[in-house]
Amino acid sequence: LTVWNWIKYPALLVIFVFVLAILYQLTPNVQRAKFQILSLGGITALVVLGVAIMGFGFYLSNFGNYNQTYGSLAGIIMFLLMLWIANLALLFGAELDSEISRSRQLLAGIEAEDNIQLPLSDESGVIKLHEKESKMVREAAELRRDVWQEQARH
After folding, report:
1. CA gap 64, 57 in Å, rounded
2. Which residues of the chain have pLDDT under 50?
3. Closest Cα partner for 65 from 81, 78, 83?
4. Model-level pTM?
5. Cα separation of 81 and 75, whole Å?
6. SS3 letters for the chain?
């Protein structure tokens, strides 16, 4: 029991770092050069998430009277609010990694002023989106043309 009390938080931190590394590796639809366990964005996300969880817990224990306001739904509402805060922290870390990657590309002379220049992992979704968009534009043009011709007849 004493050993578990000493290693449970570092073990949880190691597990969370690996889950975060896998999340940051797989979620953007781009091919990455290598798998990074720790990145500046990941470390920042962990720190921001830890501070946010502690700060939110302190706020709830000292200042929040949500049980009186929301009754039995207070726990669910506070849990969803905590998930939202955690999501913001993770997105902040991912955005930081993205901007670091873009800065490296700019310094290397790659035109990355607007977008990061990385190849896509899977192009099928992008192709389907472009096909759907062009189909909608064609249909809208046909509708406009039909309405204009109908108005010209009258």
Report:
1. 10
2. none
3. 78
4. 0.71
5. 10
6. CHHHHHHHHHHHHHHHHHHHHHHHHHCCCECCCCCCCCCHHHHHHHHHHHHHHHHHHHHHHHCCCHHHHHHHHHHHHHHHHHHHHHHHHHHHHHHHHHHHHHHHHHHCCCCCCCCCCCCECCCHHHHHHHHHHHHHHHHHHHHHHHHHHHHHHC
